[in-house]
Write a structure and sequence with these properties.
Layout (H helix, E strand, L loop, with lengths): L21 H16 L12 E7 L7 H12 L3 E7 L5 H10 L4 E4 L1
Parallel strand pairs: 1-2, 1-3
Length: 109
């Protein structure tokens, strides 16, 4: 049986971003948003939603998804922030899945 979650692949990372330290990747997001939205502020044609996440346990109290999705919606970005409430034993499968796909980033708690 596979992991109880699935991440959808997206290829919105500019070349070379994956090799940068995480703190440098964050600085690349703002200039990219203008390109992804296009000059009219609408999402670009053919763009795929990228996934951001928080993973840990418990997460029922976390305000992160609401907070981040509010900002994402206000900026009309092709992003989505999801919570994955997983026990520590499920982390290896989760990290295998995200390594195999293309995602923007996440938080571990």
């Amino acid at each position: 049986m596979g992991p109880p979650f699935r991440l959808l692949p997206a290829d919105l990372h500019p070349p070379g971003v994956a090799s940068l330290p995480v703190h440098r990747r964050l600085h690349l997001l703002e200039p990219r948003t203008r390109k992804l939205r296009g000059s009219s502020g609408e999402r670009g044609c053919g763009t795929t939603e990228s996934l951001l996440f928080i993973v840990g346990h418990p997460l029922s109290h976390s305000l992160s998804p609401s907070m981040h999705n509010g900002v994402i919606a206000s900026r009309n970005l092709p992003l989505r922030y999801e919570a994955f409430d997983l026990s520590p034993g499920e982390f290896p499968d989760f990290f295998r899945v995200i390594r195999g796909g293309n995602f923007l980033g996440g938080n571990v708690t």
